[in-house]
Specification:
alpha+beta; nine-stranded antiparallel sheet; globular
Length: 345
């Protein structure tokens, strides 16, 4: 554990509780779906380029020197199967061909996970667990989502206020939205958060008339954008350094840090046809975990500590249910080659 972290006394107890809750919920619904971000808008290929002349404090790990990594990127909804429903939306990035000993068993990948909110609605694992426990109980009782929020606001007024402020219909297209890590990570010996922003970013809302849209409009818009663009989409990758631990806590994910962002890399996504059976199957089978990481980029804070076990166990359950082995892609792999390799196992 990093010296920057300050876990509560019941940290492991709450991590065990949220992991058990997640796995039991998957078993009671459909364990073939991901426990987090179940609906994919698309899985696309790209390139992650580390900039040169970085500040010495930032030039560590994968950012130690200018370099290009092939990547797979999965866009998704946080929990809804309908793009029109208010939700969080994710952007998960997997770098391949990354040298060095990792925190987990993977050999050559580095994952970055972000959502379209600069902070999380729950401060820590305990508040998230208690919130979700009550929310599921209201769902079982047949309560509508608006009524659930009203009932939850009695015991969780701050969480409900943050939740309602940060959820929205899916961005169209997802590639033109802004994404944040919400939770902190090491960058050498400093704590940082990540942010990705399309170059020339202009705020884009979901379609005004959602009734005229299909429940899959985000994926449809992503397909149109990448099949018709004349050049690559460029998204800038930033870090936000912790400068005041009191105002920018490690263990409270509900606090939005206020320090400036520094651009240290860029993500390039070229025109491509990605909406195929092979690529969709490949994308669904990928496992992203913030602990697929070099030690220099170790995840920090309670929510990240809980994600390590929760993501590992939920991924294992999902792959066992589907009868598909977990595979980390390598540079040069294609969806077809990975699926062919799996079929031979």
């Amino acid at each position: 554990m990093s010296t920057l972290e300050n876990p509560p006394a019941n940290d492991q107890e709450m991590i065990d509780a949220i992991v058990d809750f997640q796995i039991n919920l998957m078993k009671q619904t459909d364990p073939s779906y991901r426990g987090q971000h179940p609906k994919m808008h698309g899985c696309v290929r790209g390139e992650f380029r580390v900039l040169d002349c970085l500040d010495t404090a930032d030039a560590v790990g994968i950012f130690a020197k200018p370099c290009c990594y092939p990547v797979w990127i999965r866009f998704s909804n946080g929990f809804s199967q309908d793009d029109r429903a208010p939700d969080f939306h994710g952007m998960a990035i997997k770098l391949m061909g990354v040298p060095g000993q990792k925190l987990g068993a993977e050999k050559q990948t580095q994952d970055f996970l972000l959502i379209d909110s600069p902070y999380f609605f729950a401060a820590d694992v305990e508040r998230l667990w208690r919130f979700m426990l009550q929310k599921v109980q209201f769902t079982v009782q047949g309560m509508s989502p608006p009524d659930q929020m009203k009932a939850l606001s009695v015991d969780f007024p701050a969480e409900v206020a943050r939740f309602l402020k940060t959820v929205s219909p899916a961005p169209a297209p997802p590639i033109c939205a802004q994404y944040w890590s919400c939770v902190p990570y090491l960058l050498g010996d400093q704590a940082v958060k990540y942010m990705i922003q399309p170059r020339g970013f202009v705020e884009r809302a979901a379609p005004v008339d959602l009734s005229a849209c299909s429940q899959d409009y985000a994926g449809e818009s992503l397909t149109r954008s990448l099949s018709s663009c004349a050049s690559s989409f460029i998204l800038d990758f930033h870090v936000q350094r912790q400068t005041c631990p009191e105002d920018e806590p490690i263990e409270d994910a509900s606090v939005e840090w206020q320090t400036p962002f520094t651009r240290i890399a860029e993500l390039s996504i070229p025109a491509q046809e990605f909406n195929t059976v092979a690529q969709n199957t490949f994308g669904e089978n990928l496992s992203f975990n913030p602990w697929h990481s070099l030690p220099e980029h170790r995840p920090l804070g309670g929510l990240n500590r809980s994600r390590k076990v929760a993501y590992e166990k939920s991924s294992l359950l999902r792959h066992e249910t589907r009868g598909v082995p977990m595979v980390e892609p390598r540079p040069g792999d294609t969806p077809e080659s990975v699926l062919k390799s799996i079929a031979k196992q």
